[in-house]
User: Fold these one by one.
Assistant:
Number 1:
Amino acid sequence: MSMSPKIVVVGCGISGICAARKLVQSGFTDVKILEATARGGGRIKTGRFGNSIIEIGANWIHGPSEENPVFCLARQYGLLDPEALNPENQAMDIKGHPPWVPNVFTSSGRKLNAEDVYPAQDMFVELLSDISDLHTQGGEPCPSVGEFIRSEVPQRVAERWKDDDATTRSLQMSAISNLLKAECCVNGTHSMDEVGLASYGLYKTLPGLDCTFPGGYEGLVKNLMSELPSDLVIFNKPVRCVHWTQSEPRENAVIVECDDGERFTADHVIVTVPLGYLKKHQATLFRPPLPLHKMHSVQRLGFGTNNKIFVEFDSPWWDAECDAIYLLWEDEDVLEQQRTDVHSSWIRKLFGFTVLKPTEKYGHVLCGWIAGHESEHMETLSEVEVTRAITQLVHQFTGNPTITPKRTLHSQWFHDPWTCGSYSYPAIGCSAQDLENMIEPLPTKGSQSRPLQVLFAGEATHPCYYSTVHGAILAGWREADRLISHYSKSKL
Ligand SMILES: Cc1cc2nc3c(=O)[nH]c(=O)nc-3n(C[C@H](O)[C@H](O)[C@H](O)COP(=O)(O)OP(=O)(O)OC[C@H]3O[C@@H](n4cnc5c(N)ncnc54)[C@H](O)[C@@H]3O)c2cc1C
């Protein structure tokens, strides 16, 4: 390429890194990434907790198999355990439900047998699968996943559990309530009442048994970044406004204005900021503002909070083979309104813990999961307050007042000013068109001004893998390819 176009990528998360890397590998020589913070990786963030490596952000490779770019890159860089490379692992189709060995505790301090809650689990998995099918059939009995579940449960309970006594039924209802909280974490939403029923099925899973990065997810980011020219990323450079043009054609059409006043001119800008940030700042981030249909899709799509609370113990109070601990509140019924006092009862929203494995590496560390407004409130508390709440919770559910955490550490994705939450989901009223609108470059079709001034990547712009690392990578590559093909065509 003789005269390389100027390309600015906003955001040094995995999507921005992958877009820039592909452009550089295709011969583009004038590529810059402007990143608000002092580090690359965004929502891929590996930290330390005592002697352990922990993931503050992305945790798993969801569906590690040939079609998953995270898996292929991680394999290429030698970042995976041999088990994850096993073809049997790649062929397993778990459809988003990892086969975790559970331990179940209740609020009266009882430890249940896993089988005790199988009926609730089976019904829940079946309901979610029915909802995914609804999408393909085009039927839509109510607006949200939560409402659908609450309307279906009484009928299915009446049919299937008619011979069960009230206590057994009530336990199953508590279990479904717990599963709904877990599903809020999966979807990164406050309530499944906010997740659109018709659009729930847009999300697609890949085959493969979810696996982790033994040396930390950030190893992937470091390897990818090491292949970029060292001056390509400019850190501590928040972008305030992208000035593009709808009307007259002009040289260096786009001006990227930073918080410190510095301006970068560019032929093309790839915006990869999180949807949460876009929701908050879209009115000022673009001049002229985004076209109305794009603005509306930014507003309509959901972006909620899911946080982790890491907790270390001297010794385990769960079984050696246990992968996940579920905490059932016996007074909670899926059909009744949830408590709303976030301040006094936020901890009820924590559905349970996953166990960090192997024990030889991590010691006895659990990762608690909490979504929604309660999670956002939790972020405002001190570590001492969070530790106190976790301690009380563990005492209550184990019935053992001597089990005390050594330490805790929690993520704070909602209050991260460059993320403003965790990840996206299709909210009530959303359709595939909203994701298409997110993807559409500026200026939109039919404009007389310079094409492809502003392009959009990032997790929330993938039509079926939104909310994941592989979705973010594929979206970055898609926008790099758009420019690559634009220049290969214009050369002809
Ligand atoms: C708690 C949690 C758990 C998760 N677990 C998983 C998982 O197990 N598996 C999985 O696949 N995915 C998971 N995800 C989702 C995954 O982390 C994201 O989908 C992915 O990392 C998003 O990449 P991105 O490049 O689109 O965005 P980001 O990583 O958010 O990158 C955007 C970048 O833009 C920067 N930025 C923002 N505003 C500006 C500005 N004005 N100027 C300049 N720079 C700016 C930010 O600082 C950031 O570096 C999880 C996320 C969270 C929060």
Number 2:
Amino acid sequence: MTEGDGRVTDLTPGAAVASATAALRPKLRGWLHAGVFPLVLAGGIVLICLAPTTGTALACAVFAVASWLLFGVSGIYHTGNWSPKWKAVLRRFDHTNIFLIIAGTYTPVSVTLLDRSEAHLLLALAWTGALLGIGFRMFWLTAPRWVYVPCYIALGWAALFFLPEFLHTGGVAVMVLIIVGGLLYSLGALIYGLKKPDFSPRWFGFHELFHALTIAAFSCHYIAVAISVMDVRRR
Ligand SMILES: [Zn+2]
């Protein structure tokens, strides 16, 4: 078949589905996360190597692996043209990685900023919440956004109860970075939930804005973790 501009179109069903999906998707979908992945990879390695104790190095490794999975899988999932079967598998991982990054961020924050009993409490809370959330997203992939987005928000904002400790041990800069990171993630979740603002559906839609905000939020938390980890030796 010939289109108006004289090009011949491939009309096999597979090509039709692939081109329809590609046409619907903003051109930058996935490229932000794929683009920052090398930085996130390097940043994680630097953090693990500079951690002053075995405990902090392990906590940084948990944080690093969660960030590699988050940005790596998202980059692969959002940039590729996957068959419906692979798409469902990658989508599951993409969504469960959000719970992993929440608990993964709590891990070095708890280990470096809280006393032992408080750290155990927050880690138990964060990882139980994350594992429940992962189970929920694995088995109910088609759950509506208003069901699962509040789960991310609730688990993330459980940190509020520990803010006085973060301030006391980490100082103002660390506490502000943790709060700003949380606000940026939450703003992203809100935009993802509402599907707006959708600035440029062709190039940079609401989903890309959400991805950009996750990068900004992660950067804040990465700096907070780096400061806290380096400070452990001083304390
Ligand atoms: Zn996404």
